[in-house]
Amino acid sequence: MEAQQRIESQFRIARLKYSGGGDWYNDPSAEVNLLRFVGEQTNIDVDPRYEFVELSSDKLFSYPMLFMTGHGNVVFSEYEAQRLRTYLSNGGFLYIDDDYGMDKALRRELKKIFPDQELVELPYTHGLYSSHFSFPDGVPKTHEHDGKPAQGFGLFLNGRLMVYYTYESNPSDGWADPEIHNNPETTRQEALRFGTNIVVWTLSR
Q1: pTM surpassing 0.85?
Q2: Which domain holds residue 36?
Q3: Phi, psi at residue 89, to the nearest 5°?
Q4: Domain of 73: which CATH number?
Q5: pLDDT by residue (tens digit) across 11-52?
Q6: Which of 78, 91, 92 is CA-nearest to residue 16?
Q7: Number of domains in the chain
Q8: Distance, CA of 94 to CA of 87 (rounded, Å)
């Protein structure tokens, strides 16, 4: 019984499965490696395994953090948008990493969830950038993409950051197994440190 309670209390991340044809499932090693790193670098009790969840699932509300990524189209039905709105409004946190090419569709679909909100860029002084490791210049530039500056955007509810979105940066590629993207180890470590900040921020709100 105690072992079961410990498993249920461990910090977990669920990959958000979405419709529209985008590759929501890519790089499944990313969250596993990030959680292992978090477990090594902090006192957070983590469960380093890959899990995914659909917005219609009863399991949705058991995850403190959802992770969403991909390269292309994203589509939320009205029911899915309502479910995600409920999840976020009740304390849930969604981290979205544009793996390249999902920005236009993502911004369109986020409007279904919070039609009266626009994504706003977080200032470098935001607490997420110093929650564990220091990132005085904001989001690290893990991948080149279009050569634009890396940016981090948010949606807020009563001052609480509930959706965090990284663009032109792609830190989650740095979490994946080293041989997948052949990132320099310094880049991987930077990305893992940044991911740790996101996890710590999720738990400290």
Answers
A1: yes
A2: 2-204
A3: -70, -20
A4: 3.40.50.12140
A5: 999 999 999 998 999 999 999 999 999 999 999 999 999 999
A6: 92
A7: 1
A8: 9
